[in-house]
Amino acid sequence: MSLPISCHTNQFGTLGQIDPSHLIEIANQGYKSVINNRPDFEGGPDQPRNADIQAQAEALGLSYAFLPVIAGAITPEQVVEMARLLKTMPEPILAFCRSGSRSTNLYHMALQVR
């Protein structure tokens, strides 16, 4: 089954929560970098932990960043950091959170940073 990635451009997509096993398909789809925008344990103890996702991503040769943001409370500093990641991480980049909406909003805000 294919992951429901929302492709915003050829170089950037978003997705809801992933677990480490999804990273093989993400890599096979050509993504070079992954950004996790979801705080650990936001969804409770069963939510996949950032450290586990990061370990699998790096084992597959993907660049990885953890930039947790709270929906409705994205800070200017987080927007600037997202803009920096978009400029410096190998493309294409996939960002994820609970549903993909927060990553999408953060992406659009980061595009306004010069």
Description:
The protein is of the alpha/beta class and 114 residues long. It has four helices and five strands. It has a five-stranded mixed beta sheet, with helices on both faces. A hairpin with a 2-residue loop joins β1 (6-9) and β2. α3 crosses α4 (101-110).
Task: Compute the separation of the termini in Å.
Answer: 38 Å
Strand content: 15-25%
For the report, how would you describe the main beta sheet?
Answer: 5 strands, mixed
- How many strand units? 5
Segments where pLDDT lies below 50 for 5+ residues? Answer: none
Helix-strand layout with pairing:
Blueprint: E1 6-9, E2 12-15, H1 23-28, E3 33-36, H2 50-59, E4 63-66, H3 76-88, E5 93-96, H4 101-110
Parallel strand pairs: 2-5, 3-4, 3-5
Antiparallel strand pairs: 1-2
Summarize the structure.
Helices cover 34% and strands 18% of the residues. It has helices spanning 23-28, 50-59, 76-88, 101-110; strands at 6-9, 12-15, 33-36, 63-66, 93-96.
Keyphrases for this structure?
114 residues, alpha/beta, Protein-Tyrosine Phosphatase, Chain A, 5-stranded mixed beta sheet, 4 helices, 34% helix
